[in-house]
Specification:
Layout (H helix, E strand, L loop, with lengths): L1 H19 L4 H86 L4 H10 L6 H4 L5 H26 L3 H13 L4 H14 L6 H14 L3 H14 L6 H14 L3 H14 L4 H12 L1
Helix pairs in contact: 5-7, 6-7, 7-8, 8-9, 8-10, 9-10, 10-11, 10-12, 11-12
């Protein structure tokens, strides 16, 4: 009985103690709330940081795109400016080429070498006259006139050679051209072209100089020398624009020398190599009559 009473008493005391000190349920709930709040704050801070980082990336990309657009516009402006410059240069180049074509046509017109035109030009060309063969014996006046012609030609040759040596390449070639076009001084033009070839053998104008020398010698009826210069154009400068004309002139020289076989050969070569050129069209007509 005493044991039971003791047990009952102990259990009563324990119950009383439990009732007096209940479990800290509120504290646990508060602690949980604080933990969740901290986590939520951390998540909120992380999202804000991410948004800020994304904003910085977007701004950087937008700035880069704007800079690229500005650079692209600058390049477009430069390309447009270059196109304008190129058009101006092309126009100037076309003007220069047209002037050169006009010069060639004028020289060809004066040194055409066919029909009455050739005779008219020949009459204006001072030619070297040998007193022993062309001057009548016992005519002192004629001898003096022939000497004066020879002296003037020698002076022109010497003046041309000396002046060419002191001029630039372009100036020397222009002077030789002007002797033909402006001055009608064919006696001075021949040594001027020859001096130019000697002083500037690798010039871009050398092939033209050979062609004009061939023309000038053709007009003087010096067909061997004319043939030599025309052949040099064809053989030494195959890419020259004067090759078709030189082939035509070689055919004409052969005709003057009564070598119809050679003339036909040159004309056929011209037609085969340059079928669409103007000299080829003239060569076809000549072949029809030969």
């Amino acid at each position: 009985m005493d044991v039971k009473k003791s047990l009952i008493t102990a259990l009563s005391l324990i119950s009383i103690a439990v009732l007096a000190n209940p479990a800290p349920v509120a504290d646990l709930s508060r602690s949980s709330n604080k933990t969740f709040g901290a986590q939520n704050s951390a998540r909120a801070g992380s999202v804000e940081e991410r948004l800020a980082a994304l904003e910085r990336v977007v701004e950087a990309r937008a700035s880069a795109q704007l800079e690229m657009q500005q650079q692209l516009q600058t390049l477009l402006d430069e390309v447009s400016e270059l196109r304008g410059t190129t058009e101006v240069h092309n126009h100037k180049l076309e003007e220069i080429l047209q002037q050169q074509r006009d010069i060639y046509q004028e020289i060809d017109r004066r040194l055409g070498g066919q029909g009455s035109a050739g005779v008219a030009v020949q009459s204006n060309v001072p030619t070297t006259v040998e007193p022993q063969t062309s001057v009548p014996a016992g005519n002192p006046a004629a001898v003096v006139a022939a000497d004066q012609v020879a002296a003037s030609e020698a002076a022109a040759t010497q003046a041309s050679a000396s002046s060419t040596s002191t001029m630039s390449e372009g100036q020397a070639y222009e002077q030789a051209i002007n002797f033909v076009i402006k001055d009608n001084n064919y006696a001075a033009a021949i040594p001027a072209f020859e001096s130019f070839i000697e002083n500037y053998p690798n010039s871009e104008y050398t092939s033209n100089s050979h062609y004009w020398l061939g023309q000038l010698y053709y007009q003087k009826s010096d067909f061997p020398k004319a043939k030599t210069h025309f052949e040099r154009v064809v053989k030494q400068y195959p890419n020259s624009s004067r090759v078709p004309d030189a082939l035509e002139k070689l055919g004409m020289v052969a005709e003057k020398q009564n070598d119809l076989v050679a003339a036909k050969r040159f004309y056929n070569q011209l037609i085969k190599s340059f079928p669409k050129s103007k000299p080829a069209a003239k060569a076809r007509k000549k072949l029809e009559t030969m």
